[in-house]
Specification:
10 helices; UDP-N-acetylmuramoyl-L-alanine:D-glutamate ligase; 13 strands; nine-stranded mixed beta sheet; alpha/beta
């Protein structure tokens, strides 16, 4: 399956360590591990972090042809602090190179020629007006593609109007419990249960599928008219950075394979839990480990 992923490349700074990430970057790594052909559209600065990012992307099997090098703006960084439950809290530093990527007509035609089946985007990158226009053009040039929105709210990197607009552009969405409550409040969606939220939000935005992740308590998923909840997978959490992005890749993998909600949710839960049990956002893993329960 061909996927176009649009968004940020960020070095996550955790204490004295730096890990290459950003939700779209992490998603691209994990979707590639699941066997998909992902074109990643992003940007890095003309600086040492940017050069390191490109080298590491190549080592991870990510094509760098559409990771643009932007002069005069630094490669993106985020300070990450882990709470007592090893859950990450982010401070995003801007301006950043990924805010300034662009698409020529030739580049857009080249991407369109690949006929992506899905276009993936999040919220953080779309704060930039230039990014929103780029994404709008990519969607317009590929009307056959599904549109996967990973809502992923980060402090000071969203507005209600932006999130509602992006939700309306999507055909599938993934969000966590806090994000579901936030979106429900903005839109007046009753918060009676996860199932009510999934069904009401799908009706409101025209989503074909939606998933609400619940951390250690698993997830709630709606695909078409089929709703299913699965419990969490018990693991020792090392750090949860990237676990949600891996979950998104596995969710989209299940959709593409035509799996039902129960199988998709179970598989995505296992992938997310495995990533949370290992250090870094993109640790080495294989689909065979998930299928075998490893």
């Amino acid at each position: 399956m061909k996927i176009l992923a649009i968004g940020e490349t960020i070095w996550d700074v955790i204490g004295s360590d730096e890990h290459l990430g950003g939700a779209p970057f992490n998603f691209t790594v994990h979707a590639t591990r699941l066997g998909h052909d992902v074109t990643f559209l992003s940007g890095v600065g003309a600086d040492p972090r940017g050069r390191r990012a490109l080298r590491q992307a190549e080592r991870l099997g990510i094509g760098t042809a559409h990771i643009q090098t932007i002069s005069g703006v630094p490669t993106g960084t985020a300070t990450v602090k882990l709470d007592a439950d090893r859950q990450p809290h982010f401070e995003i530093h801007r301006p950043a190179a990924y805010d300034h990527i662009s698409l020529t007509e030739t580049e857009l035609a080249d991407i369109t020629l690949q006929s992506p089946r899905w276009i993936y985007f999040g919220t953080l990158h779309q704060v930039s007006a230039q990014a929103r226009e780029l994404t709008r053009r990519a969607i317009g040039a590929n009307p056959q593609a599904g549109r996967f929105y990973d809502i992923n709210l980060r402090p000071n990197c969203y507005t209600a109007d932006l999130v509602i607009d992006l939700a309306a552009r999507a055909t599938t969405a993934k969000l966590n419990q806090h994000e579901a409550r936030t979106l429900a409040g903005w839109c007046g969606i009753p918060g009676e249960s996860a199932q009510h939220f999934c069904r009401d939000a799908a009706d409101r935005f025209g989503w074909q599928a939606v998933c609400v992740t619940r951390g250690a308590n698993g997830c709630a998923m709606l695909i078409g008219d089929e709703y299913h909840e699965v419990p969490g997978v018990a693991v020792k959490v090392i750090d949860a950075v990237g676990a949600g992005d891996a979950f998104s890749a596995a969710f989209l993998h299940g959709l593409a394979a035509g799996w039902d909600a129960a199988r998709t949710a179970t598989f995505a839960n296992r992938v997310g839990a495995l990533i949370a049990s290992r250090p870094g956002a993109t640790p080495t893993w294989t689909p065979e480990e998930i299928e075998s329960g490893g």
